[in-house]
Task: inverse folding
């Protein structure tokens, strides 16, 4: 019998995921997640299972850990290594194809995210319809924390995409030596807590992402804002929502962007229809860039 050919993304992930090697650090990180006995936790990319075991201890025999591992070889090793933990289920599957809607209400997520699927995984996981109650994700720091012209922390496209639905906090900042192999970028554990209520109507969240994608094309923002809003509307946003009309996304807060979107969404169907499909187009563009750079991941130099 011929061996099963490897999944096309196996090699990509192999070179874009760095693994924690200290059980003591992993125990500390899982403690930060505040898991309770009886919780259901989805783990993406468990690798060798060092995090999986600690998650299982945290939720106890009454809970459930669903570890989704793409690599068949690693999945089999995990089943053998964690066979004593009846609360752990190993699924051999691409995490991006996992059905979140099948999980119980209030489930949580913990993941050391392969950097080559960061964009896709964040969009898939952190959504208002089927997203988790809480998530703790190990990510490249600059994914959610940018810098502005003054050199201070600022929002990023991804943080502004997520924040209407989830509050975001930096739970832990790693040393590069915490991983093997060591990354060449700054990495952090981010905590996500679902907002109740969200800043954007869940039924219009897709339109919000299209709106964000259109505005992101204008680095300085002013041109995009003036195409979407009248002078009076921009003045109103500045006075009431802390919006900065002459600046791009990095100078806006999540609350200001939500307010701008609410005003935009209340406009004519012709205007809102003009942004339809913008997020899909941006996603295709990102995938093309990631395809070119996918040999990097954690070890990819900053752009």
Result:
């Amino acid at each position: 019998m011929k061996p099963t050919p490897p999944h096309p993304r196996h090699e990509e992930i192999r070179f874009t995921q760095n693994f924690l090697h200290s059980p003591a650090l992993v125990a500390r990180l899982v403690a930060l997640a505040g898991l309770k006995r009886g919780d259901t936790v989805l783990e993406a990319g468990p690798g060798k299972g060092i995090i999986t075991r600690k998650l299982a201890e945290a939720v106890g025999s009454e809970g459930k850990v669903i570890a989704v591992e793409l690599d068949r070889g690693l999945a089999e090793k995990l089943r053998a290594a964690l066979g004593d933990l009846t609360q752990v289920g190993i699924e051999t599957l691409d995490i991006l194809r996992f059905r979140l809607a099948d999980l119980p209400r209030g489930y949580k997520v913990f993941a050391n995210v392969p950097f080559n699927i960061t964009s896709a995984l964040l969009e898939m996981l952190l959504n208002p319809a089927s997203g988790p109650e809480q998530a703790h994700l190990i990510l490249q720091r600059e994914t959610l924390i940018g810098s502005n012209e003054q050199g201070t922390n600022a929002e990023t496209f991804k943080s502004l995409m997520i924040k209407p639905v989830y509050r975001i906090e930096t739970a832990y900042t790693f040393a590069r030596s915490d991983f093997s192999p060591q990354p060449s970028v700054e990495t952090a554990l981010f905590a996500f807590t679902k907002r109740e209520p969200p800043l954007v109507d869940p039924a219009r969240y897709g339109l919000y992402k299209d709106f964000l994608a259109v505005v992101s094309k204008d680095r300085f923002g002013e041109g995009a804002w003036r195409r979407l809003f009248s002078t009076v509307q921009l003045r109103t946003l500045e006075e009431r929502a802390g919006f900065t009309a002459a600046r791009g996304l990095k100078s806006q807060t999540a609350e200001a962007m939500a307010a701008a979107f609410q005003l935009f969404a209340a406009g004519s169907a012709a205007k809102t229809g003009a942004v339809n499909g913008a997020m899909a187009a941006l996603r295709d563009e990102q995938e093309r860039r990631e395809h070119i750079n996918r040999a990097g991941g954690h070890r990819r130099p900053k752009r």
Remarks:
- The longest helix spans residues 278-293.
